[in-house]
Specification:
With about 300 residues, this protein is an alpha/beta fold. The chain has seven helices and 13 strands. It has a single domain, classed as Spore Coat Polysaccharide Biosynthesis Protein SpsA, Chain A (Alpha-Beta Complex). It has helices at about 30-40, 55-70, 100-105, 125-140, 220-235, 245-255, 275-290, and strands at about 5-10, 45-50, 75-80, 115-120, 120-125, 145-150, 160-170, 175-185, 190-195, 200, 205-215, 260-265, 270.
């Protein structure tokens, strides 16, 4: 079965302070994104679709095209504010992107096969890609999607707040609930989130979504429908965003789909803040020394 990797890379990394998609992390200058690409290729993915902004197209392509030539089919899609359905236009003053649901939707004409969707600036680990590839080979249907989950304790930055979708599953291992928690941080030996003026403790072993999904292309039809509903209600709200988890949970509630939660034996790393970089560099170095990755990914 053909497998595509959709990478959401249009964000500029406002908290990080630059185009972190091409920030060197590996021992030979590799980016976090290159490790995802390496893992996807060896898990059997045939094609990668990058969702980027036109403003950094040249910089992005100059970095990645030479690495991927001859290894995987590559396509680029642009996410811009004016990528809207017929009859809608960008309201005056809108600067914020429309969100991950919109970023996925703009790739609809490039994907006709099962596809995994990830963030460009997250490290997901080898087994995560193997799990989703096996899921595509054995379980994906128009009514059955997948999601790779991680333990909350393995996804926290030591240098600032993070937001996470805290998940619950039913007795069959299907996703039953996603609750978005914001301002999550370590506090002494606990992990807490802020609600109003209160700190509320979370179970460190809670499973969370890190935006690693396995979708059937049937998703695009529902995305189009829900995005129009979103625009009807929110087009004049300058900070409103159309998020993938909201779309998926609406589909679960309406019994259109089940989402199998896949528990990959991987650690997640992310570069949310500049201070995170040193930690991620150290973790990649350890994985390289263990032989999980070659010192030079593309040699």
């Amino acid at each position: 079965m053909k497998k595509t990797l959709l990478i959401l890379a249009a964000g500029m990394g406002s908290r990080f302070g630059g185009l972190k998609q091409i920030e060197p992390i590996g021992p030979s200058g590799e980016t976090i994104l290159e490790y995802s690409l390496f893992d996807a290729i060896r898990a059997g993915f045939d094609k990668v679709v990058f969702v980027i902004r036109k403003s950094f197209e040249k910089e992005f392509k100059d970095h990645f095209e030479k690495q991927l030539k001859g290894k995987i089919e590559v396509q680029y899609i642009f996410q811009e504010l004016d990528n809207l359905p017929s009859g809608y236009k960008v309201p005056e003053g809108r600067e914020k992107p429309w969100g991950t649901g919109h970023a996925t939707l703009v790739a609809k004409n490039a994907i006709n096969e099962p596809f995994a969707m990830i963030n460009a600036d997250d490290f997901y680990g080898t087994s995560a890609f193997q799990e989703i590839a096996n899921f595509f080979d054995n379980n994906i249907t128009p009514q059955t999607y997948g999601m790779v989950s991680y333990s909350l304790k393995n996804t926290i930055s030591e240098f600032g707040y993070v937001s996470r979708g805290v998940c619950k599953t039913d007795s069959n291992g299907n996703l039953s609930e996603i609750t978005e928690r914001t301002k999550i941080q370590r506090k002494d030996k606990s992990i807490c989130y802020t609600e109003g003026e209160n700190l509320i403790e979370l179970n460190p072993d809670s499973i969370v979504s890190m935006n690693f999904w396995g979708f059937h292309p049937s998703l695009f039809q529902e995305l189009e429908k829900q995005f129009k509903l979103f625009l009807d209600e929110n087009i004049n709200k300058p900070k409103a965003e159309f998020f993938i988890p909201s779309v998926i949970f609406n589909m679960i509630k309406s019994k259109q789909i089940n989402v199998k939660v896949l528990n990959a034996d991987s650690h997640w790393f992310g570069v949310t803040y500049p201070q995170d970089k040193a930690f991620v560099v150290t973790q990649i170095k350890k994985l390289t020394e263990k032989g999980i990755y070659p010192k030079e990914l593309w040699s």
